[in-house]
Design goal:
By secondary structure, the protein is an alpha+beta fold. Helices cover about 25% and strands about 25% of the residues. The chain has a single domain, classed as Thymidylate synthase/dCMP hydroxymethylase domain (Thymidylate Synthase, Chain A, 2-Layer Sandwich), CATH 3.30.572.10. Strand 6 and strand 7 form a beta hairpin.
């Protein structure tokens, strides 16, 4: 994907050095934005191998709203660095929990009792797309200030917005912080998949994915791998097939990646 390689090249050329909580310095670029046309192929990087199975496992984990990785880690260990067995693999009320179980509190005016209910933001978004596609309020947020101190990692991909134009479903993601080597390829594939799932559910064609990264950064121990990657020529994008069934009934086996050709894997260490 040329859009991704341009992101890498921009940060390498114009970024500034910054320190951060991990102890591994970064080269950071403020406020990077790009778009990809989802109708032209599934945007899984071809200049290195990206583990598509882990992308789908992670997305389905988000949609379950779990506050732990005990089930996820049976299939992929991509979240193991953020918790451990001593913590019973808990990560708190992060991404998926906020997507599908946003807590709402209301007071009974007669008794003063506080009632807690839950908002499934994904369902709300799907219903708006179906019933009011011109709405500019089709927003899902994972950023909940009330839980920041209780979760393993404050949500990097903070919120996303759907837009319907000319019978096509577009998705915009605003990301507060983006690890270009490891995180961004997964984020891109994850939201492209989610958009395709919802487009199928709402009988819309695929539009564009728009991505704004507030702090787009490259860790210094990722520099050599990314410099190698931008030398590689992008290959034809693969295609994603999703079984035609109701959104909430989709399972791992319902996702089929076709014709994924890629350059060799490049390993990058995780900065925690």
């Amino acid at each position: 994907m040329k859009e991704y390689l341009k992101l890498v090249d921009t940060v390498l050329s114009d970024g500034i050095k910054k320190t951060n909580r991990t102890g591994v310095d970064t080269i950071m670029y403020f406020g990077y934005h790009y778009k990809v046309d989802l109708a032209k192929g599934f945007p899984l990087l071809t200049t290195k191998k990206v583990f598509f199975n882990s992308v789908i496992r992670e997305l389905l984990w988000y949609l379950k709203g779990e506050t732990h990785i005990r089930n996820l880690r049976k299939h992929t260990k991509i979240w193991d660095a953020w918790t451990d067995e001593e913590k019973n693999w808990e990560i708190g009320k992060m991404y998926g929990y906020q997507w599908v179980k946003w807590e709402k509190f209301s007071e009974d005016p007669k008794t003063g009792n506080i009632k807690k209910t839950f908002i499934n933001q994904i369902d709300e978004a799907i219903n708006l797309i179906k019933n009011n596609p011109n709405s500019r309020r089709i927003v899902v947020t994972a950023w909940n200030p009330s839980v920041i101190d209780e979760i393993a990692l404050p949500s990097c991909h903070a919120f996303f917005i759907f837009n319907v134009s000319n019978g096509k479903l577009n998705c915009h993601l605003t990301q507060r912080s983006g690890d270009i080597a490891l995180g961004i390829p997964f984020n891109l594939a994850c939201y492209a998949t989610l958009t395709q799932m919802i487009a199928q559910e709402t009988n819309l064609d695929l539009g564009e994915f728009s991505h704004y990264i507030n702090d787009a950064h490259i860790y210094e121990n990722h520099l050599e791998g990314l410099k190698e990657q931008i030398k590689r020529e992008p290959l034809t994008l693969p295609k994603l097939n999703i079984t035609k069934k109701p959104f909430w009934e989709l399972e791992f086996e319902d996702f089929e990646l076709l014709n994924y050709k890629h350059h060799p894997i490049i390993k990058f260490p995780v900065a925690v």
